[in-house]
Amino acid sequence: MAFNSISTLQKNRVYAPVITGLAILLAVLVARPAFTAYSEAKMELLATETTLSEEQSKLSKLEEESAKLADENSELSKNVAKITREFTPSEIFEVLLLDNKFTVASAVSGQTTPSVSVTDVVAQAGNKEPSGIYRGTVNLKVSAKNPEMIAAYLDFLTSHPKFAFTLNDISLPINTQNPQTAATETSVDVTLGLYYYP
């Protein structure tokens, strides 16, 4: 019997590493897909958290812009109000010719003649830009006693609170002699862009 138990013990010593190896192999084969799925899920979770963080940042920026747009006194709201209007030549002519201190003589300041003369005004509705906003053009001839008055008038137009005028083109050289009068006068042909969204 003692001999039998020694051979059984030796057999068990031989089988034990084989059984342990098979158990480890089986555990690896069973656990590997679960570990792979866990690793992929962890990486996907990390990517999702990164994307979520970026999207929350974008959302907070949009909420800030929305709050600025809702505030009627904000610069963004004023700029949007300039663009969201119809292309109405009568309103444009009113701004260019009547509704400003440059083209109208002022009894308060003692002016008997306007400081800027605007002639040859042509306003044309424009085409739709790729951004979806329309861009019209306004051509005009501006005359004044000096170039500084013309510059002040053009600055007034490009910073006007009602319209989104841009200075597209100005003809050079500036004509500084009016052949019809003896007085020296500066005149220039100007093309303004006007952004609008009907």
> How do the helices and strands follow one another from N- to C-terminus?
HHHEEHEEE
CATH superfamily of the largest domain: Ribosomal protein S6/Translation elongation factor EF1B
Shape descriptor reads rod-shaped
What fold name stands as the CATH topology of the largest domain? Alpha-Beta Plaits
What's the story with the biggest beta sheet? 5 strands, antiparallel
> What is the residue-mean pLDDT, rounded to a whole number?
78
CATH class of the largest domain: Alpha Beta
Number of DSSP helical runs? 4
Describe the structure.
This protein has helices at 2-70, 75-83, 89-98, 147-158; strands at 116-128, 134-144, 164-170, 175-177, 184-196. Helix 1 (2-70) packs across helix 2. The protein folds into two domains: 1-70; 84-196, Ribosomal protein S6/Translation elongation factor EF1B (Alpha-Beta Plaits), CATH 3.30.70. The chain is built from four helices and five strands; from the N terminus they run H-H-H-E-E-H-E-E-E. The model has no long low-confidence stretch (mean pLDDT 78). Strands 1, 2, 3, 4 and 5 form a five-stranded antiparallel β-sheet that branches. With 198 residues, the chain is α+β, with helices and mostly antiparallel strands. The protein starts with a helix and ends with a strand. Helices cover 51% and strands 24% of the residues.
Characteristic key phrases:
198 residues; alpha+beta; Alpha-Beta Plaits; 2 domains; five-stranded antiparallel sheet; 4 helices
Q: What's the structural blueprint in terms of helices and strands?
A:
Blueprint lengths: L1 H69 L4 H9 L5 H10 L17 E13 L5 E11 L2 H12 L5 E7 L4 E3 L6 E13 L2
